[in-house]
Design goal:
This protein folds into two domains: 148 residues, Ribosomal Protein S5, domain 2 (2-Layer Sandwich), CATH 3.30.230.10; 119 residues, GHMP kinase, C-terminal domain (Alpha-Beta Plaits, 2-Layer Sandwich), CATH 3.30.70.890. Helix content is 35%, strand content 32%. It is built from ten helices and eleven strands. The strands form two sheets. Strands 1, 2, 3, 4, 5, 6 and 8 form a seven-stranded mixed β-sheet that branches. A four-stranded antiparallel β-sheet has the order 9-10-7-11.
Amino acid sequence: MDRVTQRAYAKLNLTLGVLYKRSDGYHALDSIMQSVDLFDTVTIERANDVLVTSTGMLLPFDNTVRRAAEKYRALTGRGAHVRVEKRIPAEAGMGGGSADAAAVLNGMQALYGEVDEPTLIELGAAVGADVPFCMRGGLRRAEGIGEILTPLRGPKMNFVVVKPKQGVSTKKLFSMLKLPRSMPDTTGCMRALADGDVPAAAALLFNALEEPAVGLVPEIGEIKRALLDAGALNACMTGSGSAVFGLFPDESSAREASAKLTGYDFVRFCRST
């Protein structure tokens, strides 16, 4: 096998709590993360060197895809030529760069198989905090900086994701973050998801980064209100923003709302994977 193609799925943070700033500069988090059926397509070919090309979005030379491939190459001597078809918006909090890096590591491992699973996850964490989750996907609780993952049970969920034109810089947001912050009821949300109770889970959506992000991009708050007005059970910013998602009771109401929410930079109906 000389080539593999991977789907790099976006993620949403149903809850996101910030515990404290660690001595290494990272923030300790507690989050429920759900992958959704919006994805980039990543094609990985065997090579001696590393080459990255993209369509749909111009990637800077120093990007997560290149860093992931270079880390695998540094460990094994195996390179890759990578082509990324971008659909996940940037600076949205949907893990697009992390998902692409995860697809590269999974793809290179499928081609070469030269590292064990724990080492592969360590490579992912060295690229970015969300990469280990994106390497596995589904519905999981993420702790630590995002690398401690616990699989969760949950129902199929229907979302509408809306992103304003302006993104949020994760680095800038965390640099101005003041602690302590209010925390989500993560265990309560986990219980509701395990019971398949979507309205109860919706009531517990919470992101500790949302309030400071609204200070940077006020349209986040406007989009949240628009999603609620469109029939969402609840709405919440994902990750460090600026995308906001609404959780809807069923697919038909989500699709109807998606069609009505015009005038934004990005609007997409998504289902949980």
